[in-house]
């Protein structure tokens, strides 16, 4: 049976292709096995669609916001972009708790319907006579609220996989999520060919242009996702060994049927893993946020150059992340999830440490006064603002370099491009490893009991990290510069590594911990 588990982990999407042998060994029937993995693959698609829903409009929000409501400024753009994470943070515990007591199809269907309705609202935010920017804010917040179903997805996969299958399935989930973040902007680029004017469907007052087509595609994919969930998704539960539960209900009877003791979850390990997950997403969110202003200050890149070159860097990191997600399944069998999590944090720490400025070469100083439409500080929407401001008319010359308003520019050495690329590569290795291992360990700590509420809190902590990460780095970088910013980040990661060391022995699977306790009692 160990060999069967190994084969299941090696398969990236389909799992073990020998269900007949599992039936002979009394683990599960062939019909149950096939249905279980069909359901899991539907949830892979759900995570992919959720990621696409976030990223497919990220580069066009700013010009669309300016078009529908000229009173909107860059600071309001920050709230529009942050509203997605706020909505997801609020919704994740709600949908997670719901999934503990009702079939998963219910919260999944409702959450996706909310996202579909929110995308339709986004396509119509031009229609109201006033306050259009607030309609856009509501639309993006509701899209994020619908994306709270990621907690349900993780809970389902945790309960429908054995310990041997868990890391592989979680890695596949993260790979689909990363792929959605990569392909979303690519879809947006294709839709840009439609143009800003596009065509208008007068009968329903629908404008089909480069701004609305992406969300209409998102709505269509959401409806397709609902159909697949209703037609294919079935409730499945297996224990840590992969033995199926014959009566999958969300009550105490089901829990007793697979002989799981009550109230035995290690709450210290649960809280520690939530903190670890928060820090992992926090550090990557702030890295994404700071990349554009950092390169513009250090290398005197124009806005257009920064968007192009930084976009290439982030795209390469996305591809790197997918490869890491795939390769980590094999590595976890050799050294274990905890060791990979620790190693990933160390690699991330090295990556940020490399970014510390040194030497006697200083960045070019931007002595010119800032234009009225320049952006002195980083915001949540820095990348989007930078991209679309770069195409504005009437800018014959664009001041480049480190703005004199940032006093640290005068005494902080330049961060060499080789430093940046090396750092990005290391962070691109450490982040996906830590991401997968955090909630893989989390699911194993919780055991085979319904995990919806717990997964909701984990997803909420990640959403909070995506809110507070950009806020933290923008303020520290603007006032104190990269030396202080990256030093503090290194300190945060070092404290996180210390926390992991303290709770290392507690981050074990529920069943293993139960066995150890039983042995100590006997």
Can you write the helix and strand succession as a string? HHHHHHHHHEEHHHHHEHEHHHH
Radius of gyration: 24 Å
- The CATH topology assignment of the largest domain is Growth Hormone, Chain: A
Number of helices: 19
Indicate the structural class. Answer: mainly alpha
Poorly predicted parts: 1-18, 247-263, 369-396
Question: How much strand content do the residues show?
Answer: under 5%
Summarize the biggest pleated sheet: 2 strands, antiparallel
CATH superfamily of the largest domain: MFS general substrate transporter like domains
Q: Architecture of the largest domain in CATH? A: Up-down Bundle
Question: CATH class of the largest domain, anyone?
Answer: Mainly Alpha
**Overall domain count:** 2
The count of β-strands is 4
Shape: globular
Measured as a percent range, the helix fraction is: 55-70%
Arithmetic mean pLDDT: 77
Distance between the termini: 28 Å
